[in-house]
């Protein structure tokens, strides 16, 4: 009997079925799973022929052809060049449709980075939008930028909008439920942008979006347990456990940044004192610099890093202090989750060759066991949050299980 199940491994080849989560699989479920397999194979191995898809997936050629025709009709993929063969018929190669694009935004307390990305993760446009505390005015600026990008690419088909948020997003309601550094309260950003853009909007926590992008890229192949830590105005984290991204109840899993480590520390945006992020975030480094150099003008974090490259001792001391706190705070993660890999993403990674060893040293000093996790950085720094927002849209709109859980699609003009 086929089932869709939540299981707990007992040993090699043996799984205990949790009957609370068993659901009989229908023929429709099997078709949906096969569709996901074919789309993922095309994405990861493009360009690829139908025959190679059949061999790679183990599915019958007739099944592959039916799925491919459906994906072409829905414009997720397109047919391209003919493959070169020494003899016989030359098959047509398949690839993701790069005419299909996604609008994305990485929203932060002081600015939003807006971009247009195609299905192959190529950036077609990118802009920085200063935003204000009032969410309605901020959304108006973001929407204005998105409308400008859409107008500049009339030949493209727009699948939807992905938003990387500096806080926790309820996966059911798609509402921002915890964002101490943004302070937008109960404002429904999804509804506001959907009404103005007439495209379906998908929200995701920035760390979860980045982790999804890393898994889709293949950079975490063969890794089952990992944690991704975003270092920006605050500290966020996402958890990969046994090959699955964990969101927890109401999407709130992984808030290590708001774990108090010093009850006498500064007040955090969440209202508590001495949270990890008030010592290890980019904002903390800027505070350290301002305290040590009170007559200096306010800096951005990029400017602070530039000063470290110029040899400014005060700047170096400020970022070093941040990195010591970051390394020590990773004990919260290593002691509770024991991941194989910890990935750091954010502005700090631009100077990782200089400051990464400091984080590594202080993480290893706090280990409960003798084997520390592999510590690394995402490959594209600040762009990972944008790629993550795009990956969220692709996952929810193209995948069988997640597409069903997503809100109904907004009606939009027929794709060209």
Structure description:
The protein is an alpha+beta fold and 416 residues long. The protein folds into three domains: 23-83 and 90-96, Winged helix-like DNA-binding domain superfamily/Winged helix DNA-binding domain (Arc Repressor Mutant, subunit A), CATH 1.10.10; 100-210 and 384-405, Nucleotidyltransferase, domain 5 (2-Layer Sandwich); 222-377, Nucleotidyltransferase, domain 5, CATH 3.30.420. Helix content is 39%, strand content 23%. The chain has 14 helices and 19 strands. The strands form six sheets. The protein has a five-stranded mixed sheet with strand order 10-9-8-11-14, with helices on both faces. Strand 8 (100-107) and strand 9 form a beta hairpin. The longest helix has 19 residues, at 27-45. The radius of gyration is 23 Å and the shape is globular. It starts with a strand and ends in an 11-residue tail after the last helix. Residues 1-22 and 400-416 have low confidence and may be disordered.
- Beta strand %: 15-25%
Number of strands: 19
**Oligomeric status of the shown chains?**
single chain
Structural class determined from secondary elements:
alpha+beta
Cα-atom radius of gyration: 23 Å
């Amino acid at each position: 009997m086929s089932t869709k199940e939540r299981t707990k491994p007992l040993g090699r080849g043996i799984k205990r079925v949790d009957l609370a989560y068993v659901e009989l699989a229908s023929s429709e479920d099997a078709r949906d799973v096969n569709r996901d397999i074919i789309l993922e194979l095309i994405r990861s191995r493009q360009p690829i022929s139908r025959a190679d898809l059949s061999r790679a997936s183990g599915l019958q050629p007739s099944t592959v052809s039916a799925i491919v025709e459906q994906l072409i009709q829905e414009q997720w993929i397109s047919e391209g060049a003919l493959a070169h063969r020494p003899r016989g018929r030359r098959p047509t190669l398949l690839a993701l449709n790069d005419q299909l694009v996604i609008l994305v935004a990485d929203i932060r307390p002081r600015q939003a980075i807006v971009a247009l990305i195609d299905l192959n993760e190529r950036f077609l446009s990118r802009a920085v939008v200063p935003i204000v505390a009032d969410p309605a005015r901020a959304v108006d600026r973001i929407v204005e930028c998105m409308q400008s990008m859409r107008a500049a690419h009339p030949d493209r088909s727009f699948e939807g909008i992905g938003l990387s948020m500096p806080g926790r997003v309820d996966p059911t309601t798609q509402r921002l439920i915890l964002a101490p550094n943004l302070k937008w309260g109960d404002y429904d950003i999804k509804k506001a942008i959907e009404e103005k853009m007439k495209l379906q909007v998908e929200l995701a926590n920035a760390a979860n979006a980045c982790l999804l992008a890393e898994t889709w890229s293949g950079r975490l192949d063969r890794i089952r347990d990992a944690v991704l830590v975003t270092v920006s105005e605050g500290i966020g984290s996402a958890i990969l456990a046994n090959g699955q991204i964990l969101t927890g109840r109401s999407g709130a899993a992984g808030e290590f940044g708001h774990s108090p480590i010093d009850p006498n520390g500064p007040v955090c945006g969440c209202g508590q004192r001495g949270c990890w992020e008030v010592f290890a975030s980019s904002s903390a480094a800027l505070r350290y610099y301002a305290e040590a150099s009170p007559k200096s003008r306010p800096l951005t974090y990029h400017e602070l890093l530039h000063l470290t490259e110029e040899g400014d001792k005060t700047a170096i001391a400020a970022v070093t202090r941040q990195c010591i706190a970051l390394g020590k705070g990773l004990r919260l993660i290593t002691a509770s989750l024991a991941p194989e890999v910890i990935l750091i993403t954010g502005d700090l990674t631009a100077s990782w060759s200089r400051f990464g060893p400091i984080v590594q040293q202080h993480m290893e000093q706090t280990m409960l066991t003798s084997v520390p996790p592999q510590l690394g950085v995402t490959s594209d720094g600040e762009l990972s949050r944008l790629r993550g927002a795009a990956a969220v849209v692709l996952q929810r709109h193209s995948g069988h299980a997640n597409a069903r859980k997503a809100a109904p699609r907004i009606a939009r003009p027929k794709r060209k």
